[in-house]
Amino acid sequence: MTSSLCLLVLALAVMVSTFAGCASTPAPAGDHLRDQAGSQTVTEATDEFYGALQAVFRGDAAPMKAAWWQDEEIAYMGPGGDYLIGWNDIEKEWDLQASRKLGGKVEPSRLHTIEGDDFAMITCVEVGSNVVNGKSATVSIRSSTAFRKRNGVWKAVSHQTDKLPYLENPE
Asked: Is the CB of residue 35 less than 8 Å from the CB of residue 152?
């Protein structure tokens, strides 16, 4: 099996295991949630996620942290090649990425959405650029993000991308 196929199979397994507990997981205490009358759409959640990514590139991780349900079952496989489960490790990764202040802008292209009552998944190609060692570095990577809806609010519970050579973490 090629490494790309293995990564895809692993990613799908993580998403299936994440989806399996969706209906029974209560919202964490202290979350400020909209009521049904002010229900958010998956499109709005996607826009917020990618807006938050731009903030990370400017050095601010707070909007990205707000875009995630901060549970122990969530998963992240980012462009550094990491494979993280649980909010504590994922929060540290977003802080690390923000500290890099990569600049540039990356947006979803070829966006495809699959939506259920309280679970949705988007796939896309993230395109744009970052600034690495003072030079523009092109970004064009496949990505998928899963969102869970609680009390009318969609937030990320899983995100995975292809690797970017300039972000790869040593194993």
From this structure: yes
Element (H, E) at 75: strand 75-77
Of 75, 103, 83, nearest to 19 (Cα)?
75
Per-residue model confidence as pLDDT tens digits over 102-143:
999 999 999 999 999 999 999 999 999 999 999 999 999 999
Listed in order, strand segments (DSSP E) in the chain are 75-77, 84-85, 105-115, 119-132, 135-150, 153-161
Specify the residue for token string 């205490």.
29
Using DSSP, state whether 50 is helix, strand or coil.
helix
- Quick one: which of 131, 81, 67, 66 has its CA closest to 101? 131
The runs of H, that is alpha helices, within 21-163 are 42-57, 62-66, 87-100
pLDDT over 70, % of the chain: 76
CA 53 to chain centre: 9
Q: Which 8-state DSSP code applies to residue 117? A: S
Report field, pTM of the whole predicted structure over 0.85: no
Structure tokens at 5: 């196929």
